[in-house]
Design goal:
The chain has about 180 residues and is mostly helical. The protein has one domain (about 20-165). About 65% of the residues lie in helices and about 0% in strands. The chain is built from 8 helices and no strands. Helix 4 packs antiparallel against helix 5 (about 100-115). It starts with a helix and ends in a 14-residue tail after the last helix. The relative contact order is 0.19.
């Protein structure tokens, strides 16, 4: 019975953020995703490289909408994506013939590695998973996936976060680098 009582929660939902905070989150996420998408569609579209992946949408929520969260800081953003990409590609190369096993191993190992390196960034789990379940174009990248899209895409989003999140006087980003 005690086990189920733990699922009850201990507090109420936090208050809604202010309208200006909502608008700055919108502006940051719009510009961050637009910058990565423009790089993808204008620069890399004629290549075999990919710049935009689904996990960047989740990163946008953190680095533009929850800027004080430890999970949103530059170390976590960059380290989480890069470490998870390395793990995802390696797991696909080792276990790709067994997709259910590869998918589970990539995400679980990425979480373990992010914890061990103090780079926990939830979208990193998706970055590892995309390396396993992604398209043939993603698989063809091999370890290039670590640099483009994971590293470079996260770096573009970080640059936008540094610029936009510090315009409003009540916002400050980052809380820490390392």
């Amino acid at each position: 019975m005690q086990y189920f009582k733990k699922m009850k929660g201990v507090t109420t939902s936090p208050p809604r953020v202010s309208i200006p905070e909502m608008l700055w989150s919108w502006v940051g996420s719009f510009l961050g995703i637009a910058a990565v998408a423009l790089a993808h569609y204008r620069i890399l579209d004629d290549t075999d490289l990919v710049m935009i992946i689904g996990s960047f949408g989740a990163s946008a929520v953190l680095i533009y909408g929850a800027i004080r969260s430890p999970l949103a800081q530059p170390r976590n953003l960059m380290g989480g994506h890069v470490i998870s990409a390395v793990i995802g590609v390696a797991v696909f190369k080792l276990l790709g013939a067994n997709m259910p096993l590869a998918a589970a191993a990539a995400v679980a190992t990425a979480i373990l590695a992010m914890h061990a390196t103090k780079t926990l960034h939830p979208p990193g789990g998706a970055t590892a998973l995309i390396a396993v379940i992604g398209s043939a174009k993603i698989h063809a990248l091999g370890f290039w996936y670590v640099l483009v899209p994971a590293g470079m895409g996260a770096a573009v989003m970080l640059a936008v976060a540094l610029l936009v999140n510090n315009i409003a006087p009540q916002r400050r980003y980052p809380e820490f680098w390392f």
